[in-house]
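User: Predict the structure for this protein chain, please.
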Amino acid sequence: MDMPGHGGHGGHGDHGDSGSRPMCAMNMAFNWNTENVCVLFDFWRVNSSTSLVLTCAAVFLLGYLYELARAGVRGWEKSHAPSGTLVSTSSSTPLVGTDAIRNDIRWKRALFYGLLVAYSYSLMLIFMTYNGFLILAVIGGAVAGHYAYSSDEWGSVRGANCH
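Assistant: Here is the predicted structure, written as structure tokens:
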């Protein structure tokens, strides 16, 4: 059954004129495509070797900066911890102690947490293009960023999850 207003395409197909750009490739299998790969947005496309190299550099930088952002939030939490509070670098217990955390600090922590979740999900969506080049760029940026910004404390490595 065709949806009204879709001209018999069953909700699919070219909705623009014949000169419009082709649709983004939507792969559900690992690939090494170098053309028509959309990254997060329709306007961010890989269509040439040059755009592939620039996109991989940008994605690497995004992964690197995510680790910088995580380190920044950890540092902010340590600087705002109530006196006498044990501050853990583990993601499961960022602040543990007997003193109550001020409400404004809790709200800021929650906001930072939400921003980091959105950031990490964006990286996950890039990973889910299943494009080998982009996957390597995400992993490479995360590794380089973790090396640059991780603490020297043991036990600060968290599991491989989205947030």
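The beta strands are 37-39, 41-46, 86-87, 95-96.
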